Amino acid sequence: MDYKTKLKLIEQATGELKPFLFKQSVAFIVTDGKGSATMASGTLVSIGERLFIAAASHAVPEITHGEIYTFVGEQYDSGILQAPILNTGKRTDNRPDVGYLELATNTALEYLKETACPLNRLAIRGVGRPLRPTMLIGNPSEYVKGKEGSEDGTSGLVPTMLGYFAIPLMESEWPDDVESDPAIHIFLEYPNTPANQFGSDVSIMLPDPAGMSGGGLWDYGFEDATIWTKESAKLIGIQSGWYDDLRYTVAVQIVHWLRLIYSDYQDLRPTIEEHFPELLTNNGDHVIVAAP
User: Fold this and answer.
1) Which residues contact 144 (CB under 8 A, 6 or more apart)?
2) Residue 192 confidence (pLDDT) above 90
3) Span 152-181, pLDDT tens digits
4) Are 63 and 29 in contact (CB under 8 A)?
5) So where are the chain's domains?
6) Within 10 Å of residue 116's Cβ, how many Cβ atoms?
7) What is 3-269's CATH number, 2.115.10.20, 3.30.750.24, 2.40.50.90, 2.40.10.120?
């Protein structure tokens, strides 16, 4: 298959993936009651009977009664939606930079009009597969706009969800002068030069990725001799940060989020072990839950 054919297939797959993955992605704003707010991104993930927003640790609030507003992909035009939060959790000192917000499952999905990514669509892929396409989903703060006249008569904020196509860098391609760990991180280039926009001949500048922290990094799921569908895409990482001067973004491998959930929710351990037996130690006694 020549390069142009491959690019066309990726473009077609991207067109199917974006609306599908956007329906499993959210942006949320946490306010501290003192007038300041933090915006971040996340992915809805269901495990057993529980529903989570997989997010970055540094964007998860310290207290569960903080005011949290959740925006939904195709429902942005309906204004601000406030979602009930049952619990939050995160890694100490953001190492690795993974966290979660637990939502009331039935209430939240009906309220948010979203779908959740099931556990079998998470995949442990290390630093990413060589030459395999990925999509980073998030809500850049630069694209947030104010909205007047929402249904409750208040002002609102409307984010714009972005899907960014990139190939994960192999470890040999990583920058030398940044903190990195191949057991934790996934690196992507994030250029400051015009990028081609799929589906058109328009070149665009990528926005400042602030606000995309916590967004999902998805492997397209292309496999040899296998028919591809949008459900083939796998969540492999959580966006953590970026290096402005070097033009890289860095994500945390999804295995560290799974370890956090395993550590905090004893009732979910059998389900996680069933789907990810590779998390077990060599003798099969228990799952490693501590960050490396």
Assistant:
1) 39, 157, 158, 159, 160, 211
2) no
3) 433 456 677 888 899 999 999 998 888 899
4) no
5) 3-269
6) 22
7) 2.40.10.120
